[in-house]
Every structure is written in structure tokens, then in C-alpha cells.
Design brief:
Blueprint (H helix, E strand, L loop, with lengths): L13 H11 L7 E4 L12 E2 L9 E2 L3 E4 L9 E8 L13 E5 L11 E4 L3 E4 L2 E4 L9 E2 L10 E3 L7 H9 L4 E4 L4 E7 L3 E2 L10 E2 L2 H11 L3 E8 L3 H14 L2 E5 L10 H8 L1 E5 L3 E2 L5 E4 L4 E5 L3 H19 L10 E5 L10 E10 L5 E5 L9 H5 L2 E5 L11 E6 L8
Parallel strand pairs: 5-6, 13-16, 13-17, 14-15, 17-21, 19-23, 22-24
Antiparallel strand pairs: 1-12, 2-11, 3-10, 4-6, 4-7, 5-9, 8-9, 18-20, 20-21, 22-26, 23-24, 23-25, 25-26
The chain binds adenosine monophosphate (AMP) and magnesium ion.
Length: 414
């Protein structure tokens, strides 16, 4: 089995690089209060405890009749004393021989203990005839049955999405304490890069990385300062770094890290900051760089489009989550039966692009998106997962069980 040109046994695996980044980087300090509407995507800065019981009062889970269970049996008739609606409780008396018409969410009237659903009774005027007995407490959602006041419902470090917004609203929270939003400055480097929508001169390509990366970073909850394309010119790269460093928590660049003749990122990094590591045992994405600038952290992504997206997803995303105050979490991995033969040389951990699906019998299978060139952006848009092949693995045959990492919402999700 041939080793490819880029196999370098000394390079760190992505998981080790992540450990190293987490060791060096402390979450950003600070707290601000935002409205519930502004809270999605933000990270809670403190635990949220419920100020009320949930539910706040005993209420009906069904449309039907509130009764005393002891009075109800097959053939029994009760008289309707009144009606209880959600938001309009029945305030009157309900004596022996009586019941209350009740709607879902209405408070259980004083003295009653159970709900009989309307489907199992016969109604004539204000007389309700029951066809079966009822267990005490049936269809009653008891006060505090979900949780009692004082219970922590959301922990500090939780990223807020729809479920969390629902919880915050349910316990009546309108102002939400959150960690500061990360500001990320982003620029591409390369004389060949032209803006989509313009004409390409010979040798030019469109700058796709900045647009794809900006989209990913926004989906990760960052405020993105897009500094555009910086030409391969030492002074201009230097100037871009100064600006980016001054206005961001993290500076992210694409291209110019391969240390070719027009690659000035390393030169400027050496002048201005401190490089922590340069190059990892990852494919695509080997020339990934991480370090410190005077004010901001720095991630240098490779120029090849797929490499830049893979490293943004696998390395930048966990770093940003950590900076934002989220606890470390493992990517959700699945095992799937490979449908194609995959080419791989030992030496680097690979993130090949795959399409995960389920067969009729329910087992997970994964298909390759085809050619895996790190310049092929369509392989990212067609994929819904990475097929992760361990460092020492070689060619992998169809029929093997492989590890897959389904894309999260940052890459469109599954
Ligand atoms: P570099 O890391 O600058 O040597 O770039 C490696 C490869 O990625 C070259 O083929 C570049 O043309 C290409 N590339 C660099 N930046 C971008 C970009 N922003 N969008 C698309 N392709 C890029
Ligand atoms: Mg370049």
C-alpha cells in the first residue's frame, strides 16, 4: 500500500489538536441580558431555575367532565354544574351528584379529582351519563408533576434553540442571561480569487471559501466580520491581520497556509503572534494552523474549499463552542455499512464525504459522494455525513462497517 505525499507520522490527530486548543483557550468572560426573541443561538451564562411549579395548577389533559372518581360508575348520571375553560376557571360550587364540563388546560375545580373524556359519556341537556368507572386522578395534570419551583430547568453553558426557548417561556423568563456573542473576522487570501458574479480572467477562480465559511460561522452563532479577499501581498496580509485582530475574538483565514512562495500567513503570524501548531494528520485539511494573535485567537484554514469546510467543522466549530462557554461534547457517531470501495492511504485521519441512509430493513448504509478531491465543493453539498477513516487504515472495501458523523445544522443537518 503506497503512502501518499502527505503522510507524516509526527502530525497530531484532530482529537489531540482539540484537546490542545481547549487547554490553551479559556471561554470568553462576560454576561449580557437579551430578550427571549434574541436568545436563540446564544449560550446561557447561568443556570435557570423555575420560579413556578409546572404545571402551575391541577388541570385537565382532555376535553370532558371533571368528577369525583368515587361517584362515577357505569350507568351513573351526574348534573353539570358549570363550565371550566383554559384561562376561565369554574369558580362555583360543585356538590355531590354534580360534575363540571371542562376543556383541556382548564383548572380542575375545587373538590373534583378526575376527568372523564367526553367520548365515553352520553349527554342530554345538563345530564351526563357515564358508561364506565374512572381511576382517581385520571387525565389530571397535577400541579408540579413535571417539576417544582426552584428546579434548575436549563444549565449554564446550554446553547439555546427552540426547545430551550420553549422551556424559558414556560417558566416565564423574558430576559435571558447569556454569554457574549463571539465576533469572528474572516478573510480569504489569494490573487486568483474573484467575486461570484464577475468575469473570470485566465487563471482565476471564484472565492467560494469565504462565502461557505461565513455561512457556517453564522450558523455556529457568531457575529462575522467579513474582510473580503486579501491579495497575496505581504503588506496587505499584515494590514488585514491587524484589522482583524483588533475587532474580533477569533481571526479565521483561508488559503496561504501551504508555505508556498505567495503564502504570507505564516510570515505575519511569526511577526505578530505565536503559532501553537501548524499541520495536522487530517485529510482533507492538513495545513490547518492554530495560534495566538495579540488580541484574538487565530485559525488558518487551508485554501482548498473542502479542506477549509472540513477543518471549520471539525476543529473551528468545537473551539468556538468552547470559547462561547459550552461544555465539550462528543460528535454523535454512527456505524454504517459501506456501499463503495474507498481509496485511502495510511497516515492521516480522513473525512470522506458520504450519503447516509437507511435500508428497508432498517440498517444504516453509507454511499460515497464519489471523487474526493479537496477542491470539489459539490462533494460537500451532496453529502450528509463524513465517513471517518482512522489514521492507519488503508483502502476500505464495500461491505465494511465504517464510522460516520452525520452533519449537524451548521452543514444543513440530516
Ligand atoms: P493556498 O492554500 O492558498 O495555496 O490554496 C490552495 C488551493 O485552494 C488553491 O488551488 C487555491 O486556488 C484554492 N483556494 C484558495 N482560497 C480559495 C477560496 N477562497 N475559494 C476557493 N478556492 C480557494
Ligand atoms: Mg493561495
Amino acid at each position: 500500500m503506497s503512502h501518499d505525499c502527505c503522510s507524516q507520522p509526527g502530525l497530531m490527530l484532530p482529537a489531540d489538536a482539540l484537546l490542545r486548543m481547549r487547554e490553551q483557550v479559556a471561554p470568553l468572560d462576560g454576561e449580557e441580558w437579551v430578550s427571549l426573541e434574541q436568545s436563540p443561538g446564544r449560550v446561557l451564562s447561568r443556570d435557570i431555575a423555575a420560579a413556578i411549579d409546572l404545571p402551575p395548577f391541577d388541570n385537565s389533559a382532555m376535553d370532558g367532565y371533571a368528577v369525583r372518581a368515587a361517584e362515577v360508575a357505569e350507568g351513573v348520571t351526574l348534573t353539570v354544574a358549570g363550565k371550566a375553560f383554559a384561562g376561565a376557571p369554574y369558580a362555583g360550587e360543585c356538590g355531590p351528584g354534580q360534575c363540571v364540563r371542562i376543556m383541556t388546560g382548564a383548572a380542575l375545580p375545587e373538590g373534583l379529582d378526575s376527568i372523564v373524556m367526553q367520548e365515553v359519556v352520553q349527554v342530554e341537556g345538563d345530564q351526563v351519563r357515564f358508561t364506565e368507572s374512572v381511576r382517581e386522578g385520571h387525565f389530571v395534570r397535577g400541579r408540579g408533576s413535571e417539576l417544582t419551583a426552584g428546579t434548575v430547568v436549563l444549565k449554564a453553558g446550554t446553547r439555546i434553540s427552540a426547545g430551550e426557548v420553549g422551556v424559558l417561556a414556560t417558566v416565564g423568563v423574558a430576559d435571558v442571561p447569556v454569554r457574549p456573542k463571539l465576533t469572528v473576522a474572516l478573510f480569504s487570501t489569494g490573487d486568483e480569487l474573484k467575486a461570484p458574479g464577475t468575469e473570470l480572467a485566465p487563471g482565476d477562480i471564484y472565492d467560494s471559501n469565504r462565502h461557505a465559511l461565513r455561512t457556517m460561522l453564522q450558523a455556529m452563532g457568531c457575529e462575522v466580520r467579513d474582510l473580503g479577499v486579501i491579495p497575496d501581498d505581504l503588506e496587505l496580509v499584515r494590514e488585514a491581520f491587524r484589522r482583524a485582530d483588533a475587532e474580533a475574538d477569533v481571526v479565521i483565514t483561508s488559503g496561504g497556509v501551504s508555505v508556498g512562495e505567495a503564502d504570507f500567513i505564516k510570515v505575519v503570524l511569526d511577526e505578530m503572534g505565536k503559532i501553537s501548531f501548524w499541520k495536522l494528520a487530517i485529510k482533507p485539511g492538513k495545513p490547518f494552523a492554530f495560534g495566538r494573535l495579540p488580541n484574538a485567537w487565530f485559525c488558518g484554514l487551508p485554501g482548498n474549499p473542502v479542506s477549509s469546510m472540513v477543518t471549520c467543522y471539525e476543529l473551528v466549530q468545537p473551539l468556538l463552542n468552547h470559547l462561547a462557554g459550552e461544555p465539550a461534547k462528543d460528535a454523535p457517531l454512527l456505524e454504517a455499512r459501506l456501499q463503495d470501495n474507498l481509496r485511502k492511504a495510511p497516515g492521516r485521519q480522513e473525512y470522506q464525504r458520504g450519503i447516509l441512509s437507511r435500508t428497508e430493513d432498517g440498517s444504516l448504509i453509507v454511499t460515497s459522494t464519489g471523487a474526493q478531491g479537496s477542491d470539489m465543493t459539490t462533494s460537500m453539498s451532496r453529502a450528509n455525513c463524513f465517513i471517518i477513516l482512522p489514521r492507519e487504515q488503508g483502502d476500505t472495501a464495500a461491505g465494511s462497517l465504517v464510522t460516520v458523523e452525520p452533519f449537524n445544522a451548521v452543514l444543513g443537518g440530516l
